[in-house]
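Posting for a labmate who doesn't have an account.
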Amino acid sequence: MTDNLKKVPVGCPHDCGGSCLLIAHVEDGVVKRITTDESLPDNPGVAQLRACLKGRAYRQRLYHPDRLKHPLKRVGERGSGKFEQISWDEALDAVAENMLKIRDKHGPTAIMNISHSGSMLCSYHGKGCIYRLLNMFGGQTMLHSIVSNEGGVFAALHTYGTVFTTSEREDLLNSKMIIIWGWNPTDSVWGTNSSYYLALAREKGARIVAVDPRYTDTGATFADQWIPIRPGTDTAMLVAMAYVMIEEGLYDKNFLDKYTLGFDKFKEYVTGREDDVPKTPQWAEQITGVPAQTIVELAHAYSKTKPAALTVGHGPGRTNHGEQFHRAAATLCAMTGNVGVSGGDTGVSIFGYPIQTKVMSFPAGGSPENVSVHFNKWADAIIEGRTGGYPSDIKMVYSVAGNTVNQLGNVRKADRALKMLDFMVAHDHFLTATARYADIVLPATTHFERSDVMSPWCFGHYIIWSEKAIEPYGECRNDIDICADIAKRLGIQSYNDTPEDEWLKYLTGSADISDWDEFQRRGFLKYKLERSHVAFREQVEDFENNPFGTPSGKMEIYSQSIADMGKPDVPPIPKYVPPSNQEADDGGFPLRLITAHSKKSCNSMFYNLPWVREAEAQEIWINSADAGPRGIKNGDMVKVTNGIGATVLPARVTERIVPGTVNIDQGMQFEFDSTGVETKGCANAVCPDVHTSIDITPYNSTRVQVARA
């Protein structure tokens, strides 16, 4: 190490469920290498905050030859990617001029804000800056719903009365059995150190069972058993497990009587007294493809092993009726008495220890008259406007810290919608699929080029100090500074008159940082809890003084609030809802498509880094039983089609996916050939832009056909 080399703590703020510590080794103003947390924990409850491959490869992202260095102005057709370099003054003048013109003619809600989760965990820097600017400008059209886990959020609120439904990952060490259902943290992270604690739990002797359409790397690494299941049928298997437990008296009646509401109605459904259809394992086998005996054995093991954790991912909930999966999983957790106890779980993984309450975000400000549309209807809102029943006629789109156009369904429609705009602006690090459509592209800094405080997205009682390690790359500017300069041009006063360091201390005012110098030196603050956080432990240990947050004060297996919605497709007790005739009719598209999160990207980020691409290729997983009749061999280029569009990518013929199902990892940046076929393996070329009656984005209910290209 030379005398002028310094080690700088930098957080990793992306939308993977983790919040990890990176150490930037900086020499002469350049990041020479990146390591991760190597500190010895002073709190046994929190392990080292160690980064994954993507975080450790960040130097390749910082200095990638395609990194944006200067403001750009579109000179070709929108979406063509043809731009010319311009000055900051010219760029910002153009943005302000068009914003004023559009607002004065069409009103502020003619500007749609599609900013998203590229800087998910930052308290100061990120998409909050553009919400504040547009609010102070008079308003905006926003996007609502949670694409990742709307079904889980719905289930958590109506079952438990809160979204804080997850225990600390370290509590897995107290589990005698762990069922990982649609959960793949080895690839998708899903909380810093999730895989680490699974490894420790396995070493301690916990039996781990993976239920998943794919034999994932998590299943291959940690599970004693893989149970392949058809996507979208998970609720049927859970209900059949409940049948076994009810018929054999293997459920915790005392727990159900004291802490839950409505088990009697669920029991009537499961046993068939409601509809004359007993939900037996044989019934479920026909739906799920899981042998009845396997269902029986898992029900026995789960109900007889104490404590046991039914730990679920978001994927099974990203289906039509996906909220029923989470509601059914929560019911099984209650039936086994595993809610609120160490080593158990809740069946709904949203947030854990509420560390978010200690760190605020950059305030939105203003008194706007905002309107919103569902995330998956943003393109329709542009195309159809008020005449189509949408709240505004969209003339301009603004994007900060996101690649929303790429990450939502039906990218061909997105292409059509964006070409109808009067104006579009994007702040980004690269010329992403979204930025390609902008009239003005503004180069933004990364978290290595600015300071911030970060908190974990889901799990963990710590916060991270992320220090500015290097000066901005090229002419890049912080998103907040860009918005502040635009605000001046718009005549907005007091957009941001406070220095960054003062903002950060204000936003962390509830974080109990007693020694800022030590916090900045170490790069993190880990909170010492008297005991590890277990979701709903207070309710179970002292129910009279700590009721659940539901209307009844109990965990609601039957939800009157759901019943009052009057939605026939959303029953008030957990049920398997069969596909409608339209959903079940393959229409020539017989294969189910799932769109997994992978180790090579975080949403659409990192896909362009050499280290990451070397680790995992973009391929479609297809079982040999489906590949053989189609004449598809491993490595063949195949075309994936349905009524939405088409994409082309290599085939991975494998037994690690259930027959009748294929997988395309989400996140690849779309590109079209001259015939309109997507050529990079973007899953959203074939995923529809729809949502269920409770706003779930059901990507994992997509159906496709696959043929040799």
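Reply:
Got it, the structure tokens are right above this. The longest strand covers residues 5-12.
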